[in-house]
């Protein structure tokens, strides 16, 4: 149930706070972190930002992306509704004096309207009750012409029927696992990472080396990632009670309704990453 005005689900926030406290990303290598950052930000117009830009990371979590983004900007406002996650992010960015931290949800962003040079929210707004309202809250904080980068789970648009069928089965598993007590939920998610993510991802990697096209194989996106990433994402995916998915058309419509224009999508994974500019 969402708190009035917050547009958050308290149980989901608590779960993610526990996740980032456990998986602070210290176990992920610098090269892998940078490679993932570069993928998410591939469509972000760094070159169009003003000198010493001021912006925000909505749902900063452990601070894994904020740590890299803060190096390229003037001030970065790191916002998260989970106090446990903010504690991890503060430690991770303790050497970044331009990082400012806020304990808040997307429904009550502690920033003045029309004040930000940029914003981004990666893998967050599909976990809130009202995604469209969350996007609109973020866009309201931007200056005219400022970019907003989003990553939202895709609705498997373009995937074959078998891929979709496998996903539907996995979603039934998520609904069961996410309702378990937290210690048991963690243990089950780690088992899923070891018994499902790792073998499927490594098989896809071997098939790719043999010359096969693997884009439509389940979990093939993890073929070049570490087991640490798989463990993190298995908990992220199967441990959350609230998950929404959107088609490219739906995301485009929500972004435009929020006041963004000139919307550009990343044409490869992760799906869907998109950037738009405040009209």
Put the structure in a nutshell.
The chain has helices at residues 10-22, 30-40, 64-69, 83-92, 131-140, 161-177, 182-209, 227-238, 248-257, and strands at 54-58, 75-80, 99-103, 118-122, 147-151, 260-265, 273-278. It has 279 residues and is α/β, with parallel strands linked by helices.
Topology at a glance:
Elements: H1 10-22, H2 30-40, E1 54-58, H3 64-69, E2 75-80, H4 83-92, E3 99-103, E4 118-122, H5 131-140, E5 147-151, H6 161-177, H7 182-209, H8 227-238, H9 248-257, E6 260-265, E7 273-278
Parallel strand pairs: 1-2, 1-4, 2-3, 4-5
Antiparallel strand pairs: 5-7, 6-7
Helix pairs in contact: 1-4, 7-8
Distance between the termini: 33 Å
The residue-averaged pLDDT reads 95
The strands making up the biggest β-sheet line up spatially as: 3-2-1-4-5-7-6
Largest sheet: 7 strands, mixed
- Helix-strand makeup class: alpha/beta
Total helices: the number is 9
- The general outline is globular
Poorly predicted regions are none
Number of strands: 7
Beta-strand residue fraction? 5-15%
Task: Work out the radius of gyration.
Answer: 18 Å
- Helicity level: 40-55%
List the keywords.
single chain; 279 residues; alpha/beta; seven-stranded mixed β-sheet; 9 helices; 42% helix
Your description of this structure?
It is built from nine helices and seven strands. The chain is of the alpha/beta class and 279 residues long. Strand 1, helix 3 and strand 2 form a beta-alpha-beta unit. The longest helix is centred in the last third of the chain and has 28 residues, at 182-209.
């Amino acid at each position: 149930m969402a708190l009035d005005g917050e547009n958050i689900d308290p149980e989901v926030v608590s779960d993610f706070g526990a996740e980032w406290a456990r998986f602070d990303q210290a176990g992920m290598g610098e090269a892998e972190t940078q490679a993932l950052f570069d993928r998410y930000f591939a469509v972000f117009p760094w070159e169009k930002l003003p000198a010493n830009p001021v912006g925000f990371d909505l749902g900063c979590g452990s601070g894994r992306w904020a740590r890299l983004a803060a190096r390229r900007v003037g001030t970065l406002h790191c916002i998260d509704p989970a106090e446990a996650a903010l504690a991890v992010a503060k430690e991770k960015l303790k050497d970044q004096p331009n990082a400012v931290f806020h304990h808040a949800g997307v429904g009550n962003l502690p920033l003045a309207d029309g004040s930000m040079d940029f914003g981004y929210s990666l893998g967050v707004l599909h976990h809130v009750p009202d995604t469209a309202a969350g996007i609109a809250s973020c866009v309201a904080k931007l200056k005219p012409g400022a970019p907003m980068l989003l990553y939202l789970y895709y609705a498997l648009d373009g995937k074959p029927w078998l891929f979709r069928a496998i996903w539907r089965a996995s979603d039934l598993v998520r609904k069961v696992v996410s309702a378990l007590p937290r210690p048991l939920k963690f243990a089950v998610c780690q088992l899923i990472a070891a018994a499902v993510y790792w073998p499927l991802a490594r098989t896809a990697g071997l098939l790719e080396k043999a010359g096969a096209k693997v884009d439509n194989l389940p979990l093939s996106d993890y073929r070049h990632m570490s087991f640490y990433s798989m463990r993190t994402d298995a908990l992220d995916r199967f441990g959350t009670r609230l998950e929404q998915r959107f088609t490219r058309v739906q995301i485009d419509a929500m972004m435009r309704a929020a006041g963004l224009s000139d919307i550009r999508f990343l044409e490869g994974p992760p799906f869907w990453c998109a950037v738009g500019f405040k009209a």
